[in-house]
Protein backbone atom coordinates (compact mmCIF):
# COMPACT_ATOMS: atom_id res chain seq x y z
CA UNK A 1 0.00 0.00 0.00
CA UNK A 2 1.02 3.62 0.10
CA UNK A 3 4.02 4.62 2.14
CA UNK A 4 2.57 8.03 2.80
CA UNK A 5 2.10 7.02 6.44
CA UNK A 6 5.83 7.54 6.88
CA UNK A 7 5.59 11.08 5.59
CA UNK A 8 2.94 11.82 8.09
CA UNK A 9 5.27 10.95 10.97
CA UNK A 10 7.18 14.17 10.51
CA UNK A 11 4.27 16.05 9.08
CA UNK A 12 3.25 17.60 12.38
CA UNK A 13 1.14 20.73 12.52
CA UNK A 14 4.21 22.98 12.93
CA UNK A 15 5.75 21.73 9.71
CA UNK A 16 2.48 22.13 7.80
CA UNK A 17 2.16 25.66 9.19
CA UNK A 18 5.60 26.51 7.85
CA UNK A 19 4.93 24.99 4.42
CA UNK A 20 1.82 27.07 3.87
CA UNK A 21 3.11 30.22 5.54
CA UNK A 22 0.42 29.86 8.17
CA UNK A 23 -2.43 29.79 5.71
CA UNK A 24 -5.11 27.19 6.02
CA UNK A 25 -6.85 25.76 3.01
CA UNK A 26 -9.97 25.32 5.07
CA UNK A 27 -10.34 29.04 5.68
CA UNK A 28 -9.91 30.07 2.09
CA UNK A 29 -12.33 29.14 -0.62
CA UNK A 30 -10.42 27.33 -3.28
CA UNK A 31 -11.78 26.33 -6.65
CA UNK A 32 -9.74 23.16 -6.54
CA UNK A 33 -11.48 19.82 -6.30
CA UNK A 34 -9.90 16.49 -5.36
CA UNK A 35 -9.99 15.57 -9.04
CA UNK A 36 -8.99 18.90 -10.58
CA UNK A 37 -6.17 18.04 -12.98
CA UNK A 38 -3.01 20.12 -12.61
CA UNK A 39 -0.37 20.47 -15.29
CA UNK A 40 2.89 22.43 -15.03
CA UNK A 41 3.64 25.06 -17.65
CA UNK A 42 7.39 24.71 -17.14
CA UNK A 43 9.90 22.69 -15.14
CA UNK A 44 10.67 23.61 -11.52
CA UNK A 45 12.37 26.99 -11.23
CA UNK A 46 15.41 27.95 -9.15
CA UNK A 47 14.59 29.37 -5.76
CA UNK A 48 11.21 27.72 -5.50
CA UNK A 49 10.07 26.41 -2.14
CA UNK A 50 10.85 22.64 -2.19
CA UNK A 51 7.16 21.72 -2.05
CA UNK A 52 6.37 24.01 -4.99
CA UNK A 53 9.29 22.54 -6.94
CA UNK A 54 8.10 19.01 -6.16
CA UNK A 55 4.64 19.83 -7.51
CA UNK A 56 6.20 21.24 -10.68
CA UNK A 57 8.14 18.01 -11.15
CA UNK A 58 5.09 15.84 -10.49
CA UNK A 59 2.87 17.79 -12.85
CA UNK A 60 4.93 17.53 -16.00
CA UNK A 61 2.01 15.29 -17.01
CA UNK A 62 -1.51 16.08 -15.78
CA UNK A 63 -2.12 14.87 -12.22
CA UNK A 64 -5.12 15.24 -9.91
CA UNK A 65 -4.99 17.18 -6.65
CA UNK A 66 -5.60 13.88 -4.81
CA UNK A 67 -2.61 12.24 -6.50
CA UNK A 68 -0.37 15.22 -5.74
CA UNK A 69 -1.43 14.97 -2.09
CA UNK A 70 -0.67 11.25 -2.06
CA UNK A 71 2.75 11.54 -3.69
CA UNK A 72 3.81 14.47 -1.52
CA UNK A 73 2.40 12.87 1.64
CA UNK A 74 0.68 16.15 2.50
CA UNK A 75 -2.98 16.75 3.41
CA UNK A 76 -5.26 17.96 0.63
CA UNK A 77 -5.86 21.32 2.32
CA UNK A 78 -2.11 22.01 2.40
CA UNK A 79 -1.69 20.95 -1.21
CA UNK A 80 -4.50 23.24 -2.35
CA UNK A 81 -2.80 26.23 -0.68
CA UNK A 82 0.45 25.38 -2.48
CA UNK A 83 -1.42 24.91 -5.76
CA UNK A 84 -3.26 28.22 -5.38
CA UNK A 85 0.18 29.90 -5.15
CA UNK A 86 1.38 28.16 -8.30
CA UNK A 87 -1.82 28.97 -10.17
CA UNK A 88 -1.63 32.63 -9.13
CA UNK A 89 1.98 32.76 -10.36
CA UNK A 90 0.86 31.06 -13.59
CA UNK A 91 3.35 28.24 -13.08
CA UNK A 92 0.66 25.57 -13.41
CA UNK A 93 -2.67 25.27 -15.16
CA UNK A 94 -5.71 23.69 -13.55
CA UNK A 95 -8.28 21.80 -15.52
CA UNK A 96 -11.47 22.03 -13.55
CA UNK A 97 -13.35 18.79 -13.01
CA UNK A 98 -16.46 18.17 -14.99
CA UNK A 99 -19.08 19.74 -12.78
CA UNK A 100 -22.21 17.70 -13.02
CA UNK A 101 -25.33 19.65 -12.34
CA UNK A 102 -27.96 18.03 -10.20
CA UNK A 103 -28.17 15.49 -12.98
CA UNK A 104 -25.01 14.48 -14.79
CA UNK A 105 -24.73 15.06 -18.47
CA UNK A 106 -25.90 12.12 -20.58
CA UNK A 107 -22.95 12.30 -22.95
CA UNK A 108 -20.56 12.20 -20.01
CA UNK A 109 -22.24 9.12 -18.51
CA UNK A 110 -22.24 7.43 -21.90
CA UNK A 111 -18.52 8.14 -22.30
CA UNK A 112 -17.83 6.55 -18.90
CA UNK A 113 -19.94 3.50 -19.79
CA UNK A 114 -18.01 3.13 -23.05
CA UNK A 115 -14.72 3.38 -21.23
CA UNK A 116 -15.70 0.85 -18.57
CA UNK A 117 -16.83 -1.60 -21.22
CA UNK A 118 -13.30 -1.63 -22.58
CA UNK A 119 -11.79 -2.60 -19.22
CA UNK B 1 15.02 16.24 -2.34
CA UNK B 2 14.42 18.27 0.79
CA UNK B 3 11.38 16.39 1.97
CA UNK B 4 10.08 12.94 1.44
CA UNK B 5 7.85 12.60 -1.53
CA UNK B 6 7.37 9.80 -3.99
CA UNK B 7 6.95 10.01 -7.71
CA UNK B 8 4.47 8.31 -10.00
CA UNK B 9 5.84 5.46 -12.02
CA UNK B 10 6.30 6.36 -15.66
CA UNK B 11 3.33 4.21 -16.65
CA UNK B 12 1.16 6.04 -14.12
CA UNK B 13 1.45 9.35 -15.96
CA UNK B 14 -1.72 10.55 -17.62
CA UNK B 15 -1.54 11.53 -21.29
CA UNK B 16 -1.20 15.26 -21.94
CA UNK B 17 -4.63 15.05 -23.60
CA UNK B 18 -6.36 14.35 -20.26
CA UNK B 19 -8.52 17.40 -19.75
CA UNK B 20 -11.30 16.36 -17.43
CA UNK B 21 -11.88 14.13 -14.46
CA UNK B 22 -14.91 12.78 -12.66
CA UNK B 23 -15.19 10.95 -9.36
CA UNK B 24 -17.20 8.20 -7.76
CA UNK B 25 -17.13 7.53 -4.01
CA UNK B 26 -17.16 4.00 -2.59
CA UNK B 27 -18.68 3.97 0.88
CA UNK B 28 -19.37 1.22 3.37
CA UNK B 29 -18.46 -0.06 6.81
CA UNK B 30 -15.00 -0.91 8.04
CA UNK B 31 -13.43 -3.92 6.34
CA UNK B 32 -16.18 -4.32 3.76
CA UNK B 33 -13.73 -4.28 0.85
CA UNK B 34 -13.77 -0.70 -0.43
CA UNK B 35 -10.04 -0.56 -1.03
CA UNK B 36 -10.18 -4.05 -2.54
CA UNK B 37 -12.80 -2.89 -5.02
CA UNK B 38 -10.85 0.26 -5.87
CA UNK B 39 -7.65 -1.76 -6.29
CA UNK B 40 -9.22 -4.40 -8.50
CA UNK B 41 -10.33 -1.92 -11.20
CA UNK B 42 -7.74 0.83 -10.79
CA UNK B 43 -5.04 1.28 -13.43
CA UNK B 44 -2.70 2.61 -10.73
CA UNK B 45 -1.74 1.01 -7.44
CA UNK B 46 -4.22 2.58 -5.00
CA UNK B 47 -2.85 5.74 -3.39
CA UNK B 48 -3.71 7.29 -0.05
CA UNK B 49 -4.62 10.91 0.45
CA UNK B 50 -5.19 12.53 3.81
CA UNK B 51 -7.07 15.45 5.21
CA UNK B 52 -6.93 17.02 8.63
CA UNK B 53 -10.30 17.98 9.97
CA UNK B 54 -10.78 20.45 12.71
CA UNK B 55 -14.23 20.87 14.02
CA UNK B 56 -15.78 22.28 17.13
CA UNK B 57 -17.18 19.01 18.33
CA UNK B 58 -19.97 18.99 15.75
CA UNK B 59 -21.87 15.75 15.85
CA UNK B 60 -18.99 14.02 17.54
CA UNK B 61 -19.13 12.47 20.98
CA UNK B 62 -21.45 13.74 23.60
CA UNK B 63 -19.53 16.47 25.29
CA UNK B 64 -22.47 18.55 26.40
CA UNK B 65 -21.34 21.91 27.71
CA UNK B 66 -17.73 21.27 26.80
CA UNK B 67 -16.34 23.62 24.19
CA UNK B 68 -13.51 21.85 22.48
CA UNK B 69 -12.03 21.41 19.08
CA UNK B 70 -11.20 18.01 17.75
CA UNK B 71 -8.68 17.47 15.03
CA UNK B 72 -8.69 14.21 13.15
CA UNK B 73 -6.72 12.93 10.25
CA UNK B 74 -8.86 11.04 7.80
CA UNK B 75 -7.25 8.94 5.10
CA UNK B 76 -8.81 7.79 1.86
CA UNK B 77 -7.55 5.27 -0.63
CA UNK B 78 -8.24 6.02 -4.25
CA UNK B 79 -7.62 4.66 -7.71
CA UNK B 80 -7.97 5.79 -11.28
CA UNK B 81 -9.41 4.57 -14.57
CA UNK B 82 -8.65 6.37 -17.81
CA UNK B 83 -11.97 6.38 -19.64
CA UNK B 84 -10.55 7.74 -22.88
CA UNK B 85 -7.80 10.11 -23.98
CA UNK B 86 -9.55 13.08 -22.41
CA UNK B 87 -11.56 11.76 -19.49
CA UNK B 88 -10.36 10.20 -16.23
CA UNK B 89 -12.50 8.52 -13.57
CA UNK B 90 -11.28 8.57 -9.96
CA UNK B 91 -12.61 6.15 -7.36
CA UNK B 92 -12.40 7.14 -3.72
CA UNK B 93 -12.77 4.51 -1.03
CA UNK B 94 -13.16 5.63 2.55
CA UNK B 95 -11.60 3.39 5.20
CA UNK B 96 -13.00 3.58 8.72
CA UNK B 97 -14.14 6.63 10.67
CA UNK B 98 -17.39 6.72 8.79
CA UNK B 99 -18.72 9.76 10.58
CA UNK B 100 -16.02 11.91 9.03
CA UNK B 101 -16.60 11.17 5.38
CA UNK B 102 -19.32 13.69 5.07
CA UNK B 103 -17.18 16.39 6.62
CA UNK B 104 -14.48 15.92 3.99
CA UNK B 105 -14.95 19.09 2.04
CA UNK B 106 -15.37 18.39 -1.63
CA UNK B 107 -15.57 14.62 -1.43
CA UNK B 108 -19.21 14.31 -2.43
CA UNK B 109 -19.54 17.70 -4.11
CA UNK B 110 -19.33 17.10 -7.81
CA UNK B 111 -19.21 13.32 -7.45
CA UNK B 112 -21.15 11.51 -10.17
CA UNK B 113 -22.52 9.14 -7.57
CA UNK B 114 -21.64 6.59 -4.92
CA UNK B 115 -21.42 2.84 -4.45
CA UNK B 116 -22.52 1.57 -1.04
CA UNK B 117 -20.55 -1.61 -0.41
CA UNK B 118 -22.31 -3.97 1.99
CA UNK B 119 -21.24 -7.00 4.05
CA UNK B 120 -24.24 -9.23 4.84
CA UNK B 121 -22.75 -9.96 8.26
CA UNK B 122 -22.99 -6.31 9.21
CA UNK B 123 -25.96 -4.88 7.36
CA UNK B 124 -26.71 -2.40 10.12
CA UNK B 125 -23.66 -0.24 9.41
CA UNK B 126 -25.10 0.51 5.97
CA UNK B 127 -28.23 2.19 7.27
CA UNK B 128 -26.45 5.34 8.36
CA UNK B 129 -24.52 5.60 5.11
CA UNK B 130 -27.61 5.10 2.95
CA UNK B 131 -29.56 7.63 5.01
CA UNK B 132 -26.87 10.26 4.66
CA UNK B 133 -26.54 9.77 0.91
CA UNK B 134 -30.30 10.12 0.52
CA UNK B 135 -30.24 13.29 2.65
CA UNK B 136 -27.54 14.78 0.46
CA UNK B 137 -29.18 13.76 -2.79
CA UNK B 138 -26.15 11.74 -3.90
CA UNK B 139 -27.32 9.04 -6.32
CA UNK B 140 -26.06 5.60 -5.30
CA UNK B 141 -26.29 1.89 -5.98
CA UNK B 142 -25.77 -0.88 -3.42
CA UNK B 143 -23.26 -3.67 -4.02
CA UNK B 144 -23.18 -6.66 -1.69
CA UNK B 145 -19.62 -7.94 -1.42
CA UNK B 146 -19.88 -11.73 -1.38
CA UNK B 147 -17.52 -12.91 1.31
CA UNK B 148 -17.24 -16.70 1.06
CA UNK B 149 -17.94 -17.16 4.77
CA UNK B 150 -20.82 -14.69 4.88
CA UNK B 151 -24.42 -15.88 4.86
CA UNK B 152 -26.10 -15.67 1.45
CA UNK B 153 -29.51 -14.04 1.19
CA UNK B 154 -31.78 -13.53 -1.78
CA UNK B 155 -31.39 -10.05 -3.23
CA UNK B 156 -34.99 -9.15 -2.46
CA UNK B 157 -34.53 -10.08 1.18
CA UNK B 158 -31.48 -7.82 1.37
CA UNK B 159 -33.41 -5.03 -0.31
CA UNK B 160 -36.13 -5.31 2.30
CA UNK B 161 -33.60 -5.50 5.14
CA UNK B 162 -31.90 -2.34 3.89
CA UNK B 163 -35.25 -0.66 3.32
CA UNK B 164 -34.08 0.20 -0.16
CA UNK B 165 -36.49 1.73 -2.69
CA UNK B 166 -37.21 -0.50 -5.71
CA UNK B 167 -35.63 2.11 -7.99
CA UNK B 168 -32.17 1.80 -6.40
CA UNK B 169 -30.12 -1.00 -8.00
CA UNK B 170 -28.81 -3.72 -5.70
CA UNK B 171 -26.19 -6.14 -7.04
CA UNK B 172 -23.97 -8.89 -5.71
CA UNK B 173 -20.25 -8.63 -6.36
CA UNK B 174 -16.85 -10.02 -5.57
CA UNK B 175 -14.71 -6.95 -4.93
CA UNK B 176 -11.52 -8.95 -5.50
CA UNK B 177 -12.45 -9.53 -9.13
CA UNK B 178 -11.82 -6.85 -11.69
CA UNK B 179 -14.76 -7.80 -13.92
CA UNK B 180 -17.13 -7.94 -10.96
CA UNK B 181 -16.02 -4.54 -9.63
CA UNK B 182 -16.24 -3.13 -13.14
CA UNK B 183 -19.83 -4.39 -13.34
CA UNK B 184 -20.67 -2.57 -10.11
CA UNK B 185 -19.44 0.68 -11.64
CA UNK B 186 -21.41 -0.09 -14.80
CA UNK B 187 -24.52 -0.59 -12.68
CA UNK B 188 -24.00 2.85 -11.14
CA UNK B 189 -23.43 4.47 -14.54
CA UNK B 190 -26.50 2.86 -16.08
CA UNK B 191 -28.52 4.00 -13.08
CA UNK B 192 -27.20 7.57 -13.46
CA UNK B 193 -28.05 7.33 -17.13
CA UNK B 194 -31.62 6.32 -16.32
CA UNK B 195 -31.91 9.21 -13.84
CA UNK B 196 -30.67 11.64 -16.45
CA UNK B 197 -33.15 10.34 -19.02
CA UNK B 198 -36.12 10.26 -16.67
CA UNK B 199 -35.46 12.69 -13.83
CA UNK B 200 -38.75 11.88 -12.16
CA UNK B 201 -37.54 8.32 -11.54
CA UNK B 202 -35.36 9.62 -8.73
Automatic annotation (TrEMBL), chain A:
**UniProt cross-references to Pfam families, sorted A to Z:** DUF742 (PF05331)
Name of the protein described by the UniProt record = DUF742 domain-containing protein
Look up and give the organism this protein is from.
Answer: Streptomyces bambusae
UniProtKB/TrEMBL annotation, chain B:
Quote the CDD domains the UniProt record gives.
Ras_like_GTPase
Annotated GO molecular function terms are: ATP binding
Q: Carries keyword Transmembrane?
A: no
Per its UniProt record, what Pfam families does this chain match? ATP_bind_1
> Per UniProt, which keywords does this protein have?
ATP-binding, GTP-binding, Hydrolase, Nucleotide-binding
Spell out the InterPro entries in the cross-references. Gliding_Motility_GTPase, Gpn, P-loop_NTPase
Domain of life, per UniProt, equals: Bacteria
Family according to the record: Belongs to the GPN-loop GTPase family.
Sorted alphabetically, which PANTHER family does this protein's record hold?
Answer: ATP/GTP-BINDING PROTEIN-RELATED (PTHR42708), GLIDING MOTILITY PROTEIN MGLA (PTHR42708:SF1)
According to UniProt, the name of this protein is ATP-binding protein
